[in-house]
What does this fold into?
Amino acid sequence: MRLSQLFTKTSKTVPADETARNAQLLIQAGYVYKVMAGVYAYTPLGLSVLENIKQIVREEMNAIGGQELIMTSLQRQETWETTGRWDDETVDVWFKTKLQDGTELGLAWSHEEIIVEMMKQHIHSYRDMPVQVYQFQTKLRNELRAKSGIMRGREFVMKDMYSFNVDAEQHEIFYNRSIEAYKKVYERLGLDDDTYVTFAAGGAFTEFSHEFQTICEAGEDFIYVNREKGVAVNEEVMTDENLAKLGVTRDELTKVKSAEVGNIFNFGTEKCETMGLFFTDESGKQIPVHLGSYGIGVTRLMGVIAEKMADDRGLVWPAAIAPARVHLISIGEDDEATKLYDALTQAGISVIYDDRDVRAGQKFADADLLGMPHRVVISKKTLEQNSVEYKARTQSDSELIALDKIKDLV
Amino acid sequence: MRLSQLFTKTSKTVPADETARNAQLLIQAGYVYKVMAGVYAYTPLGLSVLENIKQIVREEMNAIGGQELIMTSLQRQETWETTGRWDDETVDVWFKTKLQDGTELGLAWSHEEIIVEMMKQHIHSYRDMPVQVYQFQTKLRNELRAKSGIMRGREFVMKDMYSFNVDAEQHEIFYNRSIEAYKKVYERLGLDDDTYVTFAAGGAFTEFSHEFQTICEAGEDFIYVNREKGVAVNEEVMTDENLAKLGVTRDELTKVKSAEVGNIFNFGTEKCETMGLFFTDESGKQIPVHLGSYGIGVTRLMGVIAEKMADDRGLVWPAAIAPARVHLISIGEDDEATKLYDALTQAGISVIYDDRDVRAGQKFADADLLGMPHRVVISKKTLEQNSVEYKARTQSDSELIALDKIKDLV
It folds into this structure.
């Protein structure tokens, strides 16, 4: 991608209405556009990061047998009334609207009820399970406050998966596989060192539920963590009895700020029983389906990565999700730079090529702000030594690398 | 994909609440799930077709320099008030909702205003143009009636592109390139023979605007078409004066039902002037930007293809967008069928493999209903001749093909 062609422009001005570092940087670098508090559009660079994150999540969900679909934003009142969750007193984040004939509709803040309803068409027998479906969906939530940039949106992208099983035992098998799949996702995103399977309150069917919490100063949660033992708990479960079960003492835990980047939840048979999703077992008996749900906040993850990895010069993207691997800068040597751009691109290496007619200082500043993993500079000086100047985004010093070696390095 | 693993089930029952053939078939075959009139979820097979169509559109938009982004559903009242389009009297398809503090919000039925507003951050000089951006966006439109299945939704996917140019001349260049790109899209979808660039009323800035209309009995429009001359007009422009300009007479035109599968529109400078999107020209003068918009109804296209190509046995997908190329049926020969499934898959050929434990008749009926381009059957009888039974979805008779030749055929 040639930077001269990209329509977004970087900005030196920190947006006055943003307190969150992720939103400040993403707006200044031209990754997102703020429509209103908690509502952001994703411009080409931002969409690229988002799609890269989605693809990693997709691959790991497919690997454990997830089937992708896409539900709708518009939801029927009747569906949500079956579980008592239409009421604004019970669910305080509904956006609601009306058809022209006055029929009230909800805008999906979650898809649990609607997916259970759909499954009544497809699950009839024990032979129809196990099955698990997932989607990448834009959720709308009427949050009272939205000050954390893309880490807590009123409109945001979530991966939500649902598992349908014949009993607790079959559920447990998939539930445990999902924990492993989630760990792979955070590992591929470079967050594994700071992301903990965190024990939280379990509800009616299980002792604990599990949140995935990433240590992050900008997060809105607190967890108590023991890095050596790899154990983390949230405040709800901080009783001596629970801690004993998990093999840690209160003294061994440190309180840290964190962001919830995923959660998995065992609904047992309660929701399917209420909504009438039953199956016939081997003996011909009607039994309610065992339901699990599994969320990953995709746009939140992008925000967490922006927050955690950025330095005072700008964004720092892990190679797995960066819009491009290489940020190529030409200083008055467009012919040679174009040749290298073509060579790298043809070798399947994605490149942002700064071919703009601006001063070198701005090019360097923008390379730092945009945050590609590898920076390569071509100038008269480097060409005299048949080289380019190379710097990883995370390094502070650059080095000369022979022109014919750069392909192997990036 | 093994059919035994796919969670959706086919149904022999025509949905009682659907009059549109596309919705009937897509529901029966398990491609979509109806949430309410005009609101459909896309299950794995349906999502696959949708993504294949999107990818074709994406490639053609990228080829003419389109930059992909994604805007938001939630919209601010102030943005739409600048052009007078917030008013429900002016725009009668708004869904509106409210923030918790009572602030009214709109749910995007279009993104023209918001994209122009965003561009104020990025377009300042004549050097910043030409630029064109596009998105695949879920639009919400509060249609009074929604009886055409996925051909007219209250929630549907559209590709909308916007061009920003310095003047009418620069605009014209891109406008004409977009017509060619649109033609390529319909050609790749197999709709080119029946899709016409149709002259429609032009508005303040141009004599004509252009719609892309596909001849389709289930469409909601009428056009007047001359197949030999390749000319089509809509009712608005059926004056003798206009027809003379287009080189046809009234007698040479046939009235046919059609579906609008795309439209392109020249806004001139009016909207940018109203909204304050100006640039500095070479002489330092402030000039309003010249705007164009370019739509393709992605879910509608899927509906049109379902309607037009289906026969009385079920769906018929063009190879370019089918969920898989091959529908493989095992009749009591699962070992050999699995070997072929693996061989085809490894050769990069996508396969739906019916490995279910159901009778042969149901497998044949489902292959027709699901509509993959190529059907391959393995049975004891075919294996005796070291062959498979092959039938294209559009053929009525099958033929024996040697096992080692089938890969080349599909």
Summary: The domain at 326-409 of chain A is CATH 3.40.50.800 (Rossmann fold). Residues 6 and 17 of chain A are 25 Å apart (CA to CA). Chain A has a mean pLDDT of 96. The first helix of chain A runs from residue 21 to 28.
